[in-house]
Amino acid sequence: MIEGKFVDNLPKVYGLYTGGFIAFILLMAILEQMGVSAETIGILFVLFTIFIYAAIGWLSRTMQVSAYYVAGREVPALFNGMATGADWMSGASFVALAGGVYFGGHGYLAFVVGWTGGYVLVASLMAPYLRKFGCYTVPDFIGTRYGGNLARFCAVIVLVVASFTYVTAQINATGTIASRALEIPFEVGVWFGLLGILLCSMLGGMRAVTWTQVAQYIVLIIAYLTPVIWMSNKQGFGLIPHFSYGDAVARIAELETVHGVGTAATESFPRLKILTTLHNDPGTGMAAWKFVTLAFCMMTGTASLPHILMRYFTTPTVNAARKSVAWSLFFIFLLYFTAPALATLTKLQVLDPNLATGIIGKAFADVQALDWVQKWSSVGFLAISDSNGDGLLQINEFFMRPDIVVLATPEIAGLPYVISGLVAAGGMAAAMSTADGLLLAIANALSHDLYYKIIDPKADSRVRLIVARVLLIVIGAAGAGVASLKLTGILGAVAWAFCFAASGLFFPLVLGVWWKRATRQGAIAGMAGGFLAGTFYLYYVYTGGTPILGIDHLRFGIVGMPVSLILMIVVSLMTPEPDAETQDMIDRTRIPTGKPILSEEH
Amino acid sequence: MSQDNAAREGHWAKTRTLTFGVLIVWFIFSFVVHWFAQSLNEMSFLGFPLGYYMAVQGSLAVFVLLIVFSNWRQDAIDHEFGFGEDE
User: Fold this and answer.
1) What angle do CA A238, A243, A246 make, to 5 degrees?
2) Cα–Cα distance for residue pair A322/B46, rounded to 1 Å
3) Considering chain A, what percentage of its residues have pLDDT values greater than 70?
4) Which residue from A249, A336, A593 is facing B49, i.e. has the nearest CB?
5) Does A591 contact B at CB distance below 8 Å?
6) B35:A291 CB<8 A
7) Does A142 map to a domain?
């Protein structure tokens, strides 16, 4: 496949690809009708999609530095938007978000608001300027703008800690899905997932990751929307439920009173929860404070996470980078405004006794006999127990792991198994694409900023690209090793990554463009101080300290960020202002035209 | 060069004003609206309680439109000062 031709033919290539994927779904549906087992269909879905991604990865292999680091800066805005969407929407967004809304109610919607609003910051404060700068990595910007290896090194540390925290959660998610779909042990699933991830990124770096991420976005969005739209039609909420499920919200509120949502359970099962939070009860005071602080951390984290920012280094122009942020948010919006609809409709399926699928208030023996209840109970993800012995299933007798809501929805709603296979493939695509972006961000920072810029500036491009690939494997293996220990839940680890990035990188990045007076010493103080303050606070609350003002381990960025800002301003003002050359560099960064600050091959 | 400097300064002044405006709107729909979610729920929009609606769709849609709007204005500013990229 010739590169020039490929970029010119993107709509055609991905149009054909989408058509092919839909044909594959139909083929699976036919196989299901012919009596092929559910397990086989699940395996075919996961293996087929991974095979396609690996093929794209192979076709995009390269030995050019700029293709490896920034996909040759020729990715059109719309396709970069799709790739960013896949890069962004992780296993947590795909698998855990709707489940979180299902169990967490309004408070959990802070993630939905935070993970979209952050793009406003990316668009207005970061992306166009970083693109104009012409850097390969985020520490590349810090190192050049502030000068000196120490500033670059601090940025590398923050990047590695934030991204590594995040990537273990993603490898964990690929392992969970692979082990469920392929029926292999979780520990094996983790390494299998890693193999798929490396196949996509190793040979072609950013170029390969870009084109597989576009393919993965298409799979994940089809997989997310299909069951919701299907379910909505079955329940009579119309073809597109998003604008009409208000009635479902009202009906759930009625049913919550009927079923007594909020009644504590009298038994407990490890890692399983009953529904106690009302679907729509925002509260005031502390509840509102928790909502806005979480949203704030997620937004600033979005604008500081290097695997997202580096996607905007791949567009041909500054203008395309801006447009690309708009496309990214649009593609992300499609999933995020569907997640609460999914949570609402699934909840209604379970709660409403008038629906055939309703289980709360039904005879205990009947519920126990349901296929999906048996299947998920057998693996310990769900449990029912007739605690009060009345022969009926109460709301506080139905235990479930929050993160199976999306995966189990097709079965709860009685959709054919082909949809479950599709959802598994979608979850896999979401987790793999994010893991790819993160691994690449870490490996690139280490190979470009640490190895090439700090350790061996004379290394030739061949050696640099070999180092980059070896690092990719080493970091991937380390991530899989940590993931197989199952230290943290998916969601906790993701929120931490955002808070680490926001504490250490947000202000040094923003002020690097927006405040000429910011100095090297100020930036170093801001990165180190913010990052350490956040980390110490995390350690404090995580080891049992009482959260101050309700700032718990999910939102420790609220502590790190002000420390970072204050240190950066105070230290900058105490040190001499940046020289004329640096000031001129900032001036040139602020306008879209003219040569980039860093040359094409650097 | 001095003419170029004047253009740069004018360009940056307008860019800054635009960004400031964008951030105000962002702030309102990110935080203010959700702070008052409980009261907004008394009102209804498209059959949804308004506070709930803003968290599941309203703010999200505003963010998308805000970026589109800001790109459009920024383009105009770039062209006004001769920094437009011709694509």
Assistant:
1) 95
2) 32
3) 98
4) A249
5) yes
6) yes
7) yes
B69 and A CB contact within 8 Å: no
Q: Is A113 on the interface with B (CB under 8 A)?
A: yes
Number of structural domains (chain A) is 1
> Tokens 């800690």, residue?
A161
Domain assignment of residue A89, yes or no: yes
Cβ <8 Å between B85 and A593: yes
- Asked if B21 reaches chain A (Cβ–Cβ under 8 Å), the answer is no
Give me the residue label for tokens 């220990």: A485
Tokens representing A529 are: 């101080």
Mutate to test the interface with A, among B60, B62, B69, B77 (most CBs of A within 10 A): B60
- The residue in chain B having the minimum alpha-carbon distance to the alpha carbon of residue A594 is B83
Distance CA B56, CA A50 (A): 32
Instruction: Residue A56: give its domain's CATH number.
Output: 1.20.1730.10
- Burial class, A173, CB count within 10 angstroms (exposed 0-12 / middle 13-18 / buried 19+): buried
- Assigned token pair, B24: 């105000």
DSSP state of A579: P
Strand partners of residue B49: B44
Burial class (CB in 10 A: 0-12, 13-18, 19+), A523: buried
The neighbour count for residue A201, using CB atoms within 10 Å, is 27
Hey, are the CB atoms on B60 and A112 less than 8 Å from each other?
Answer: yes
How many angstroms separate the CA of residue B7 from the nearest CA in chain A? 10
| Residue-number span of the structural domain to which A291 is assigned | 3-254+277-345+415-590
Q: Do the beta carbons of residue A151 and residue A143 sit within 8 Å?
A: yes
Q: What is the largest CA-CA distance in chain B?
A: 59
Phi, psi of A236, rounded to the nearest 5 degrees: 80, 25
Distance in Å, alpha carbon of B67 to nearest chain A alpha carbon: 6
CA distance A182 to A159: 33
pLDDT digits (tens, 9 = 90+) for A205-256: 888 889 999 999 999 999 999 988 888 887 777 777 777 787 788 788 888 8
In a domain, A193, yes or no: yes
Q: What is the mean pLDDT of residues B43-58?
A: 85
Phi/psi of residue A384, nearest 5 degrees: -125, 145
Cβ pair A576, A519 in contact under 8 A: yes
Are the beta carbons of A207 and A71 closer than 8 angstroms?
yes
pLDDT tens-digit series, residues A293-308: 999 999 999 999 999 9
**Does B70 contact A at CB distance below 8 Å?**
yes
Sign of the alpha-carbon dihedral angle for A5, A9, A15, A18: positive
| Cross-chain CB nearest to B63 (options A250, A329, A591) | A329
Average pLDDT over residues A85-102: 86
Q: Is residue A401 a part of any domain in this protein? A: no
Q: How far is CA B10 from CA A517, A585, B73, B83, in A?
A: 19, 17, 15, 11
- Write the Ramachandran bin of A284: left for phi over 0, alpha for psi from -120 to 50, otherwise beta: beta
- Out of B44, B66, B84, name the one closest to residue A120 (CB): B66
Q: How far is B42 from chain A (nearest CA, A)?
A: 12
